[in-house]
Amino acid sequence: MTMYEALLYVHLLGWVFWLGTDVGVFLGAKYFERADLSPETRMTVLQLGMVLDRFPRFSMPVVWLTGVIMMNNLGYEIIPGAVATVLAVLWLVVTWVVIFQLPGSAGHKWGNIAQTLILAAIICGMGGIASYMLAAGDMPLWLAIKWFAFVLVAITVIALEKKFAPLGPLLGELAESGGNDDLNARISTILKPVYPIVLAIYAWTLLAAASGVTKITLS
After folding, report:
1. pTM of the prediction?
2. What is the distance between the alpha carbons of residues 49 and 30, in angstroms, rounded to a whole number?
3. CA distance 19 to 205
4. Residue 195 in 3-state DSSP?
5. Long-range pairs for 120-129: beta carbons < 8 A, 24 or more residues apart
6. For the chain, which residues make up each domain, given as ranges?
7. Alpha carbon 52 to its chain's center
8. Is the pLDDT of residue 126 over 90?
């Protein structure tokens, strides 16, 4: 197995863990929303979903890094491999902080800020570079589509974090009160816009994957 083939293997596994486990998170949220289930069952399903959610979070920087290095191997060295590696490691560390630091703690707060800054850098950097290089004819369409798709993923992830955040305080209420019509209605109100956002992330990741596999051209 060549280095490129090994990178491609890890890259594809990253997509598999990203999309595959995210389906479990999606279904877990649906079951958590069900008022006919006991509070204990709903909380257990949500906790399982939160564990599964770790895989897409860690997969995103892995997919990005392996994609950049493979791109360099194909002759499109836009981001130096050493720079990409440092950024990806930093991204993984920030992801670990966001996941494992207690919500409300200083570490969790700063982790969320750092995560947003990384995603903002992805949006501005990749979006700007891809737009310029595509217009100048220095980047093939298939690669530009992959970059734009990743930019859209980053935008959608920020929107998802913002929409999902208000659910946190309601979990304590559910654990204490056992649920009621008003609480269930508030939970459903928060989760309703979350589902299309998650589906949008699936769409962008599938677009990026399809572009890389088919090598889309204008001809």
Report:
1. 0.89
2. 10
3. 8
4. helix
5. 120/154, 120/158, 122/64, 122/150, 122/151, 122/154, 123/151, 123/154, 123/155, 126/150, 126/151, 127/151, 129/78
6. 3-214
7. 12
8. yes
